[in-house]
């Protein structure tokens, strides 16, 4: 049986990951900030274990890593925040900018650190949900704070990946597409179902070694 852990599992892309993995019979550790209010998540049937987790509470991430004592085949570091609270250059709210970096950049690093041992036991796969906006080569000036947080995520995870290669753990970064969620908005062209079906295919195809930034449809994006 496949065992999966997903952060930010209560809505959007994370919720869809739970639906699809649980739907194919996987055991899913579904992590979210407010399990009490996670009605959509609780409505999914299957072998699902709920955990309360704010990924910017690094002590809590570490503690959950010590609590979950079973091999993990797949860990999806999906939890992420948009940058709308940071304001614009000239009037940045640096407290909000720091929080964005904590959630989007350091949260997945803490997740990899906490669940690395379980991934090694399973020779599993670690997928961090990044964004095409984190591509430095394609930087357009749109959403600089959010883009910075995802570029930092890419660098952090790519730099740490070699620590996992010999243990047989594949580590990768993924762009989900522009997806119809609270973050992506109603005009986004890709549904969560399409995005996650594609991401699951790309995650399944990952092998240990050089990580890349891969879109849900298999396109390899420049760093
Ligand atoms: N949608 C897009 O077009 C798009 C494009 C590129 C990349 N992405 C990335 O895809 C991932 C999922 O995005 P989405 O579209 O599904 O966004 P979403 O609908 O806004 O959902 C974000 C999820 O992340 C959780 N989250 C936020 N801060 C958290 C924290 N500190 N600790 C734990 N969970 C936290 C949210 O939980 P709460 O309900 O508690 O807030 C929610 O479950 C993110 O990493 C995002 O950056 C999305």
From TrEMBL:
Domain of life: Bacteria
CDD domains the UniProt entry points to: carb_red_sniffer_like_SDR_c
Record SUPFAM superfamilies: NAD(P)-binding Rossmann-fold domains (SSF51735)
InterPro entries: NAD(P)-bd_dom_sf, SDR_enzymes, SDR_fam
Pfam families the record matches: adh_short
Name of protein: SDR family oxidoreductase
Lineage summary: Bacteria, Pseudomonadati, Pseudomonadota, Alphaproteobacteria, Parvularculales
């Amino acid at each position: 049986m496949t065992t999966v852990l997903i952060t930010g599992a209560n809505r959007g892309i994370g919720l869809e990951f739970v639906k699809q993995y649980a739907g194919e019979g996987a055991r899913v550790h579904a992590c979210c900030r407010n399990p009490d209010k996670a009605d959509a998540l609780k409505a999914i049937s299957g072998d699902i274990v709920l955990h309360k987790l704010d990924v910017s509470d690094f002590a809590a991430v570490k503690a959950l890593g010590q609590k979950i004592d079973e091999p993990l085949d797949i860990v999806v570091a999906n939890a992420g925040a948009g940058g709308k609270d940071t304001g614009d250059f000239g009037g940045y709210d640096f407290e909000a900018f720091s929080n964005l970096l904590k959630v989007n950049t350091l949260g997945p690093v803490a997740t990899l650190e906490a669940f690395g041992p379980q991934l090694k036991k399973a020779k599993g796969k670690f997928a961090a949900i990044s964004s095409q906006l984190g591509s430095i080569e394609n930087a357009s000036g749109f959403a600089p704070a959010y883009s910075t947080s995802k570029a930092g995520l890419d660098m952090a995870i790519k730099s740490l990946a070699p620590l996992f290669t010999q243990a047989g753990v594949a580590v990768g970064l993924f762009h989900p597409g522009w997806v119809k969620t609270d973050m992506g908005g109603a005009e986004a062209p890709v549904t969560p179902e399409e995005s996650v079906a594609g991401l699951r295919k790309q995650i399944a195809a990952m092998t240990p070694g050089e990580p890349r930034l891969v879109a849900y449809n298999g396109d390899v994006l420049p760093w």
